[in-house]
Each structure stands twice: as C-alpha cells, then as structure tokens.
Design a protein that fits this description.
23% of the residues lie in helices and 40% in strands. The protein is of the alpha+beta class and 212 residues long. The termini are close together.
Amino acid sequence: MLEKLIQLTNSADFWDNWAFFVTDISLPARSSILRVTLEAIYDGFDEQHFEGRKSWELLCHNHVLHHLELGYLRPFYQMKIYKKHPLLNNHQGEFYLLKVNGYCNDPVALSEELFAVHNQGTGGWPDFVERFGYLHKTAKEKIDDEFQLPKSLVSLYSPVFQKYGLSATWQMHDESNEKVKVLLFSGENYPDKVNRGQYYIVAGDFDLLNSA
C-alpha cells in the first residue's frame, strides 16, 4: 500500500491535479510510533474525480526524528524512501571520537571553511550550527573539545582543523547497526541529497494503516 502511495505522489498527474496535505502528526508519550495523517484533494477539472479525496494514516515505527509541519506540502509532494542518505550518517556505520585542541588565530575563517566542507560533503543535512556554531567566538580562547562523528565526517573536518594550527586526533569510538530509513518529501527541482528545506521522517520502518 505504501509503495502505491509513493508511486502516486511521483506521478505527473498527482503534481498537476492534486493538493497534498499533512492534517495530523501524533507521537504519544512513551510511544515509538509516529502517526501522520496525509490527505490529497483533487483540484483539477476531470469529472471522473468529482469526489476526489484520499486520506492515509502513515505509521513510522521506531521513530528517530522528523522535520514535518501541518498544512500544504507543495512543493514537497514526492515521497521517497532511502536506506542510504546523509540524514542517516549519525545512525549507521562506524563512529569516531575527534579530539580538537589548541588556539586558532582566525576562528571566523575556520568556521567558514568548516561550513564549506560540511555542505560539500553532507549536502547540508546535518545541523552545522548545533555542532560548530560556537567556534567563531573562540578568538584568543583555547579550543579543547571532542566530537563523536561518523567516519566520513571525520575525514572532512580534521584537515581543516589542522590547517588552522589545531591538533586533531581521532579514534574508533562506536559502531551502529541501527536499521533506519528516511522517508523524504521532496520535489523534482530539489536534489534529494541537498538540504533545501524538504520534509523528512527518520524511522525504523514505514507502512500505511489504512486508506480511504
């Protein structure tokens, strides 16, 4: 059933003739299941769709995180599921502890270059500000911090820290075999691996409880 909904949302007819909405988002206390109600209303002029209203309840099992709002989904109509995506980097594979130590004479330039390699390597999906937003304020202050990062990000960030005179060492810290997927709400003009504000849900699995 979910596969059919994904096919529908990726069709030219759906884009041209349907209005797509999120009408409810629910995550009860102590529950790992996020429930999302989706509704599509036909707004074209074909008489065969005179009663064109469809609704679905999407179940997101073992919910991890989401970026989704109530209301009209356009331009993010197209639903897609990925098992590999930059959004999943923090939940899959090997994790390293990157230790950064020393003084930086130009923390603003350091932040700007880190931001550039971050966007290039991750499409801007992980939150840069949450992780490194404080660095531009560390002039004349010693930087002594550590970050748990996926292996792919360690190889991106560590050369930049070293370029600005900081010691950057890393070691294997953990490994995750967490089975998660991302359900992405995107559009034909929005590359799926680049963050342009698309909506998403990260969870263990997805299915539809019902449709009408």
